[in-house]
Amino acid sequence: MQANAPPRPPAPTPPAPDSATRAYAAQHGHLTPDKHTRQDGFPLGTWLGQQRRKARAGTLSATTAAALASLDPWWNPPWPYIWHRTWQQYRTTINRNEPVRDTLQRWAAEQRTCWHTLHPH
Prior knowledge:
Layout: H1 17-28, H2 44-57, H3 62-71, H4 81-95, H5 102-113
């Protein structure tokens, strides 16, 4: 150990989950980011995945669940998350009047053929 080694500077503090979550929801209109998504330096995609796991296990605080639901009522949907992410991608593409990729066109066509099996909400 060096006697006169300078102290290490503290690691930068990422923004609080609350501010990153609110910023993402305000920008995108949902809380369905890719797991690698970072918002203002905060690993939001990973953090939301952890919150979903806690919710499924019954260990997520009621306060956190209510805060997330106030930003996006479907932040933790009862259907598969990949379906929900694809829906958000499709919806965003349509709302922006962008060309719909072939994969999203096929996905939408499949949803129309099995409409009766989808969740009512």
